[in-house]
Amino acid sequence: MQYAIAIACNFLTVLGFDGNMLQAHLKKKQNVQNAKVMVPHSQECLDALAKDTTHGTHFAATGGHHFTLDDAFCAAEIERATQKIWKMKRRNIVQVMLLHKR
Prior knowledge:
Number of helices: 4
Strand content: under 5%
Mean pLDDT: 80
Helix content: 55-70%
Low-confidence stretches: none
Order of helices and strands: HHHH
């Protein structure tokens, strides 16, 4: 970043402008790590992706990766399977209730 700023200021100086007025010096942060919130392919990540409803929650769960990430497809499958199980349980409860009425 510092290199890009220096090039831009030098370019302005060559064109006749006072590029030194825009010169900035950035301080480097020490011990900065780009840590993801969740580990990819973990059950925690899959559950979070299956329950996400907004772009922000998806971004937090994937660390900013695309929707084509394998975890996103696995999470969609988990959500579909959960809905299917819920429907089967509901149908089973209705059948049991009908049997007890007889």
